[in-house]
Amino acid sequence: MFHRSVSMRNVHYEKFLGDGDSKGFLKISDSKVYKEELVVEKLECIGHVQKRMGTRLRNLRNKLKSTKLSDGKKISGRGRLTDAQMLLIQKYYGLAIRRNTSKSVDEMSKSIWAIYFHKLTTDAKPQHGLCPMGSDSWCGFNKCLVSDEKYIHKHSLPEPVLLATKKVFMELGDKKLLSKCIHGQTQNPNESFNNCVWERIPKNTFVGISTLKMDVVLCFNDGAYSRTKAQKFGYYTRKKHL
């Protein structure tokens, strides 16, 4: 698509949206499709970046599963880095990115570190300075400040556990990485070929394989207008369900 963008459409694609280990981008980068005219910028899929948090935490837990932390206990177990806690941190990490795409990388980074300190806080030592304020805040402590209610910390993690995860937060809260997420997009729309197929073969309608193949490929590559060209040259006859 990048190689033929100039010859077919006279446009340059400035950015490439994909996951972290995208082979497609490596090929584009290595082949220098636009020579010296333009260097294609790599953007990160925020869905894949969000999943990295869960993956990194699980890898960390597996790596330290036999190691005792500074409090003499292991990293996992009740009240420590459980599956539920990792999923929750991953969820809030994704929300920290999505809720700040219209703001700035600094705000995004601040929201990510708010998760870390929110989990670190205790009744004796509250650390909610980075958490959002107001009655609609996701932070129960700051919400209670508005309503003047007492808040009891029930979901904190021990300090040794958080210290073990700090490197993960530093890497996934890196501003260079976050700058590639500020667009707020995922690559899900790019993976729409299956959708093109199932859109054309509902369970109550028969579609011939030849028609299906041609229509899906045409529309996936060049949009619905490509059908007009195909009909003009008599490649296939348009059915009512198409």
Could you walk me through the main structural features you see in this protein, from its secondary elements to its overall organization?
InterPro entries: Mutator_transp_dom. With about 240 residues, the protein is mostly helical. It folds into three domains: about 1-45, no CATH class; about 45-180, no CATH class; about 190-240, no CATH class. The chain is about 50% helix and about 5% strand. Strands 1-2 form a two-stranded parallel sheet. Strand 1 (about 15-20), helix 2 and strand 2 form a beta-alpha-beta unit. Helix 5 (about 105-120) packs antiparallel against helix 7. The model is unreliable at about 235-240 (pLDDT under 50).
Keywords summarizing the entry:
mainly alpha, disordered C terminus, Mutator-like transposase domain-containing protein, two-stranded parallel sheet, 242 residues, Mutator_transp_dom, 11 helices, single chain
DSSP strand content: under 5%
Shape: elongated
Give the H and E element order.
Answer: HEHEHHHHHHHHH
Structural class: mainly alpha
The tally of helices reads 11
Strand order of the largest sheet: 1-2
Number of domains: 3
**Main sheet makeup:** 2 strands, parallel
Rg estimate, integer Å = 25 Å
Question: How far do the termini sit from each other?
Answer: 26 Å
**Residues in helices, as a percent range:** 40-55%
Mean pLDDT across the residues is 84
Count all strands and give the number: 2
Low-confidence stretches: 236-242
